[in-house]
Amino acid sequence: MTVFQIEVRAIAEQHDVQAHRLAREILYLPQMSSLNTSAANQTSLAPPGIRTAQLYRLTGNLDSGQINQLITNLLVDPVVQEARLTGEAGNHHVIDVFFLPGVTDTLAESVLAGARMLGIPGLEHVETGRRYMLDSHLSEEDVRTIAAALLYNPVIQQYVLHAAGENKNVGALHIVPSRNTQFIAPNFTSEETQNDRSATNWIPALSIPLTSMTDQELLDASKKGLLALNLDEMRAIQHHYREQRREPTDVELETLAQTWSEHCSHKTFKATIRYRELDSDGSVLEEEIIDGLLRQYIMRATEQVKQPWLVSAFSDNAGIIRFTETQDLAFKVETHNHPSAIEPFGGANTGVGGVIRDVLGVSAEPIACTDILCFGPADTPVEDLPAGILPPRRIASGVVNGVRDYGNKMGVPTVNG
Q1: Residue-level pLDDT at 201
Q2: Rg (CA), the chain
Q3: Is 263 labeled as catalytic in the residue annotation?
């Protein structure tokens, strides 16, 4: 089995749109303000001092003719792009960015599907990444600052830096991610199945010893596994599997955690709240029980108004209103604030996906998207940002790209926002 790494870049620097965008964004970085004072560094912060490329790492039983076929018919627009099996670093620092293990690589999936359509079954695995080439006038520290601020998101990506002069031929270099197969708790056992699974490609399920855990061990398991489940929830799962007289698998635990998550089940919105208002000396002025913010203040108000044009509300994941005597309109709203703050492109991307999905779910045809986007001040100093928060300018750029990307690929236009 052979591994090929293909670099696809714009033939001319004026066509390298990503490089021009990156050059503009670097100028807004407060950490880089000292670089903008010299003519040499200003040249470094614009093409050709900056170039970008798309990377494809192809694994399989492929011959040179099939590689040529993939490049010609699938990977390259010959009008503005060229492909190289060996990338020349030149007088540049080279940063290669790839996804972390387990992150969905949709572009790689498209390449595999395209290869099958071209009649190339020998392509078995694809990884995609981005390559950024930055002028050697920049120090390695500056390059790492740019990478951390603009080029990768540690939640879903990793990068490797080849400093200028370190290795001129970077065509075969690639990140080899560290694989971590351990899930959350120690002393896992492989669960035997009823059927004989002696084939070498069979991977047994991981069994999590949950039924015998103490309360503290349950909390530790939730924390280590990033399940975000509290003690009552972990106890409920433990009780269920004690009744089943077996241990849960890792997939079952992940499924329960996902289904019971704040994002999916809206626990805060649905929670019963004891509201108490105190005066300056601590005496209780008012106290009430709120039967869930969603139920008491949103659903109840809608039910009380009972407009005749309201066809459906809160009975499905999209609302429906009367439009004409023969047509109704379905609407779905998603915020996706938290996902978009963590990974702007993906968060906004899947937000649009959820809107389209839920409109389809009420048997309607999606015809348009709209958005209202709000961000923090674009000039917020990095040192003023809370820990783990991306700069507002980067969030805005990623969110706008994510909204555009999903809608365009689905053929559903974003008509305003």
Answers
A1: 58
A2: 26
A3: yes
Contacts 24+ apart (CB under 8 A), 287-294: 293/268, 293/269, 294/266, 294/269, 294/270
76 to each of 18, 84, 267, 280, 302, how far by Cα in Å?
A: 16, 11, 47, 69, 53
What pLDDT was estimated at residue 167?
54
328 in Cβ contact with 322 (< 8 Å): yes
Q: What is the pLDDT of residue 138?
A: 87
Q: For residue 373, give the CATH number of its domain.
A: 3.30.1330.10
User: Helices (DSSP H) in 45-177: which residue ranges?
Assistant: 64-70, 106-117, 140-146
- C-alpha span between 168 and 86 (Å, rounded): 10
Domain contains 176:
no
Model pLDDT for residues 151-167, shown as the tens digit of each residue? 998 889 999 998 876 65
Q: Which residue among the candidates 92, 137, 162, 336 is catalytic per the annotation?
A: 336
Do 54 and 27 belong together in one domain? yes
- Could you say which DSSP state residue 190 is in? E
Q: What is the pLDDT of residues 54-66, one digit of tens each?
A: 999 999 999 989 9
- pTM > 0.85: yes or no: no
**CA end-to-end span of the chain, whole Å?**
48
Establish if 167 belongs to a structural domain.
no
Q: What span, in angstroms and rounded, lies between the C-alpha atoms of 180 and 101?
A: 9
Residue range of the domain that includes 286: 271-306
CA pair distance 205, 272, nearest whole angstrom: 38
278 with 374, same domain: the answer is no
- How many angstroms separate the CA atoms of 86 and 68, rounded? 14
Q: Which of 125, 239, 263, 338 is catalytic?
A: 263
Whether residue 338 lies in the annotated active site: no
